[in-house]
Amino acid sequence: MGLFFKKSKGSQSVNPDQWLHARQGYPFYIKAPMSLIGMYLFFYFLYLLQDIIVPFAFAGLIAILLNPVYNRFQKWNVNKVLAIVLTVFLAILVVAGIMFFLSSQIAHFGEMLPQLQKKTEALLANLQSWLSTSFGISTEKQMSMVDEAMNSSRTYIGKTLNTVFGVISFFVLIPLYIFLLLFYKPLILNFIFEVFDEDNSEQVAEILKETKGAVQSYIVGLMIETSIVATLNSIALLSLGVKYALLLGVIGAILNLIPYIGGVVAIALPVLMSFITKDGYTTPLLIIGAYTLIQFADNNIIVPRVVSSKVSVNALISILVVLLGGTLWGVSGMFLSIPFIAVLKIIFDRIDELKPWGKLLGDTMPVNPSGKVVNPEEAEDNSKPLL
């Protein structure tokens, strides 16, 4: 992998065997701590610089998504700066339309707050009584547990609001980053090609092309999937007579973008609303059944056919990176984790030394998995296997 980069002028060539021997010369008890320290420092700096990196990461993904629109304006001989401004303006209009819809629904939701507060207090009182009777948990201990959960959730949400969804980041930094990324796109691409050796230019071009295609298809597919799931959620909630079905349906579809974890929260919100606004357990159970069917259709029909991403990441890695992204950058990290791991898989699949890692991230199972590990040096003559 070290030979993948361009050699500087006047530098002496390095024998690959010598380079590999030098790397393997250090004992494990030295290499392992150094690797751990390096990883810790890397993620620590990512955490410290989240106010800068997270908006830039979102802007990068959005810029890749908007690149075809910008190229279309360029084909119509529109001035470069004007084409970028029009592209960003169209994106802002779409986001503003979604925010207007959600804000109007939330405004209507505010009218029911007094009623919801009374019903919530009654439900909490019944829950406290049941916990005290069934499990012997005192009211004071329950309140302390609730306070701890509320403090942790406020910290978690606050971390997210202070990064991506802050006023400055959302309305200033992200559009500005998108404009600059589209404007300096030739400069950035030229830099990437010049960093690597000329013999690997075709490989670099292939990685860039597949990365762009994977990100574009992934984001566009998610937008279509979100629209379909929001429609299905809203229809199900309207048919069951749940209050604010449109708002809860759309919020549930947006939460569904967070793999595995968001789907659970998306079900919990309408169930909680039905508990507060209705009596009995019939409606909550019907909501759980309807959302389960929608999730099944989403995972087995909508995602395979609509989210036409060129890179598939297995469920184990998806859950791990979503949780790690949430720990590192909050909800923003959850949204960014899957596209970034998909880009890493594209890079790993194109570099010989990293191909095993690319296979580990993917969901393609070995055709003929063996129960034994074969010694590579003796594979040709089928000699002794190593258990």
UniProtKB/TrEMBL annotation:
Membrane topology listed for this record: Multi-pass membrane protein
UniProt keyword annotations, A-Z: Cell membrane, Membrane, Transmembrane, Transmembrane helix, Transport
UniProt-listed InterPro entries: AI-2E-like
Subcellular location per the Swiss-Prot or TrEMBL entry: Cell membrane
Organism field: Dyadobacter pollutisoli
Entry GO terms, CC: plasma membrane
Residues that span the membrane, as ranges: 52-70, 82-102, 164-184, 218-238, 244-273, 285-303, 315-348
Signal peptide, first to last residue: none
Protein name, UniProt field: AI-2E family transporter
Predominant place of localization: membrane
A GO biological-process term: transmembrane transport
